From TrEMBL:
The EC number(s) this enzyme carries: 2.6.1.57
Residue span(s) of domain Aminotransferase class I/classII large: 33-346
Origin superkingdom: Bacteria
Protein name (record): Aromatic amino acid aminotransferase
Cofactors, names only: pyridoxal 5'-phosphate
PROSITE patterns named among the record's database cross-references: AA_TRANSFER_CLASS_2
């Protein structure tokens, strides 16, 4: 693309700049990154061992069909292997879903604020974003989303739990919504943070997809499984959708390292989910700490919390950075703070208290 269209430029300018790398801590100070919802734990020794084996065959292309990982996922979730598709991170799969379903003149509905990739990948496809504001309680307004459907709607994202608010929609309302969506519209349940959900009322998308051919569930190895740097995500959907995803995947887009580490992680799931349990405990501690300090924080079912800091957002993020924790500011709105190591969470709580 030689020139950026004014519409795309405006869209991109509204997106906060991503700052890669480590936070700039003062000399001698430990720096913690709480800005990308990553898992603070390093890879398990067994996963590393597998990865070191794979490193030896870097002269070879990966298994293009992700055969081993696909069958492991099918077993794990009790679905036919034909209902599974893997991709370059779940954002890669989301991009494929949009490209496969939507183009100029079509509409893609999602809540706002939600995952920042939705407007970007919608724009890239040439389709039009239809953003439906969250309720005042920072939750998806599914009735308003249903009301936003037109004959141009092709795809709807429901981010559950929602990034960046951490809020989740409940089973009864989600089922009611899915029943109201015409069957030729694809509903993507983006469950990147599913393993952190503890509210029993929040449905497992994989149960909802089973008798709904127009529902596609997105999951990732980047969060609970701690493989963000390896870029591997997957979709579970009925055959036509999953087959379309397999056909439109970037050839060799999931490295052998990613495939083997993902399989090793599934096999070490008990240990990894134990770590998730610790993070969920920390989440409760951070949430309660913030509320005791007087902050209004929505209930979160993900590995982050959302603080409405309004006009003070950039200042607040700056103070956090100086204290050695990088958080994710959404200027004028709020900050999203990943639950990290105990020490990192402690620093953040201290900064939040002083800033309040
Ligand atoms: N969906 C949501 C809601 C996310 O927050 C993220 C990561 N920030 C992703 C998808 C993408 O994750 P990945 O591409 O690493 O699988």
């Amino acid at each position: 693309m030689s020139e950026t269209s004014p519409r795309l430029r405006a869209e991109l300018e509204g997106i906060p700049t991503y700052k890669p790398g480590k936070p700039a801590a003062a000399e001698g100070q430990q720096a913690y990154k709480l800005s990308s919802n990553e898992n603070p734990y390093p890879p398990l020794p067994g996963v590393l061992e597998t990865a070191m084996e794979t490193v030896r065959s870097f002269n070879r292309y990966p298994d293009m069909a992700c055969t081993g990982l696909m069958s492991e996922l099918a077993d794990r979730f009790g679905v036919p292997v034909s209902h599974v598709a893997t991709g370059t991170g779940s954002v890669g799969v989301a991009q494929q879903l949009i490209q496969a379903t939507s183009g100029p003149g079509d509409e893609v509905i999602y809540a706002w604020r939600s995952f920042e990739a939705y407007p970007i990948i919608t724009q890239i496809s040439g389709a039009t974003s239809v953003r439906v504001p969250l309720t005042s309680g920072e939750v998806h307004d599914l009735d308003a989303m249903a009301a936003a459907i037109t004959d141009r709607t092709r795809l709807i994202f429901v981010c559950n739990p929602n990034n960046p608010t951490g809020t989740a929609v409940r089973k009864a309302e989600l089922e009611r919504f899915l029943d109201a969506v015409p069957s030729d519209i694809l509903v993507v349940l983006d469950e990147a943070y599913r393993e952190f959900v503890r509210d029993p009322e929040v449905p497992d998308g994989i149960e909802l997809y089973r008798d709904r051919p127009n529902v596609c569930v997105l999951r990732t190895f980047s969060k609970a499984y701690g493989l963000a740097g390896l870029r591997v995500g997957f979709a579970i959907a009925h055959e036509p959708v999953a087959a379309a995803l397999r056909k439109t995947a970037v050839p060799f887009g999931v490295s052998q390292l990613a495939q083997d580490a993902a399989v090793a992680s599934l096999r070490a799931e008990d240990e990894l989910l134990g770590r998730v349990g610790v993070l969920v405990g920390e989440r409760t501690r951070v949430l309660e700490g913030l509320r005791t300090q007087g902050w209004t924080v929505p209930d979160t079912q993900a590995n982050f919390v959302w603080l409405r800091t309004g006009d003070r957002t950039v200042d607040f993020a700056g103070v956090c950075e100086q204290a050695g924790v990088t958080v994710r500011p959404f200027p004028g709105e709020g900050v999203r703070v990943t639950i990290g190591e105990v020490e990192a969470n402690d620093i953040f709580l201290k900064v939040a208290e002083a800033f309040r």
